[in-house]
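Dear colleagues,

As part of the handover before I leave the project, I'm documenting each prediction I ran so the next person doesn't have to rerun anything. This entry is a single chain, and its sequence is reproduced below.
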Amino acid sequence: MRKFFFYVFLGGLGLFSATSVALEYYPLQIVFVRPATHTPVVLATGTPDELAKLIFTIVEPPKNGVLLGFPPELVYIPAEGFTGTDWITFLMQATDGTIFDYGTVQLRVLGPMEMLAPSLRSEGSLTFSGPTFAVDSYRFDFGFYGRFTYLDTQAHATWDQTGFSSFRTIARIELEGDWPSPWRLPITSTLTFSPATLSLTSWTVDARTLILGWNLSYYFYYSGANPQTDSYATFTAQGSIDRYTLTSRTKFATLTPTFAEWTLNLSGPWPFCDCPIKWELEFMQRKLGFDHLGFTLKDIALPCPMCQVLQIYLDVRITFTTEMKKVEPSLRLWSGLLCARPLINLLSPEEGFGISGLEVYGVEIRCDLPRGYKTRFATSFDPAKDADITGYFHFFEVIQLEGPVVPCCGAPGWWQLSLYFQRTGGQLFGLGMTDIVLYFPISREVLLNVRLKTGLVDLDNPTKTWILAWGWKALF
């Protein structure tokens, strides 16, 4: 198992775990599709708070069908009469811009009752560090895919520096019905075992369907280590009414279902004017009572006759809890290619409610260049906010350049260069670390990746001057 400070890879499942509940994402998968049907494509699962820590970008949509919904939960509809293979390529990033992974979904559109020869999948990575070129970690994952009429099966085995670390089996079946409208219900069951202890690590069940335009899903998680306390189930309904989107999510904790929390999200255009303003509302009720209410207004245009081509937009988020009220404004200055955002806090008095001042703790500038290239500059004026802006508490400033790699054999890639700066020390202008990431496809089925960090790469081991990781993802 490959471990990092914020996330872990478990076979083909990436686990971002900041709490006891893990966020799982799927950078390489095969999805079997029946012609003229709506097929769910799930890029990640997790709580709303966990999913909010990731930004998904569809680098290449499918060419022989359409995608509905918003990442990480999508619906694929193949073009009429199409059978064969389609593809989705996507990028996963943290909110600070750091690349988490680069993923591919192979969509296999099959005819009725059509079976398919087994497919194999391989993932692997090797991590070295210097100056001694020591092997820090390695991981090899091998998988099997098979389809038998309406049953999809998978098996995955993982080896790393600790040995045979994980074995996982996945089975997926489909139920169908015609009332109140035609529907399909794919049900996926996943069993994960620990070969070292010959015990069950976890069991998950995921079921989702589309009825009358609404996405309905059920997710059950069973913990092998702590079945009673760590197991849970969630019900989610997502759809739209006119121009407004609604998402309702209910969570039940423990094996004996006990209500844990209910979250309601509403969003849509501002109904009181013909303008680009959008609004979002989030309400959460926990077992012990009211948790929070959040309301956000986005894209409020501020008049500026002297700005000419420069447009100024304001976003405001207001959060209420039983203990406090928080107002978080966000300004954006946009000129077509360049978007600047001063990072500000509203200060509250020590007693009571109100606003006692304004604090600018940083600034972020983004620029979208031709051909899909992007730049980002962010700096923090407050040491306590460094980690929020750069992703590292010991760096206060970051410059990022990224963009697509020239497609090879029809498959796109991605690269990113990040420069991190310290307040004191460093080499050139306080440069503390360089991070280079490259995802390069050599075919539709094979993707290579390389990542090189130099400089202050490990605070716990200052003698370590660089880290080199390379890996691959392949379907056969």
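Confidence is low (pLDDT under 50) at residues 1-21. The helical segments are 48-51, 227-230, 386-390.

All the best with the project,
I.
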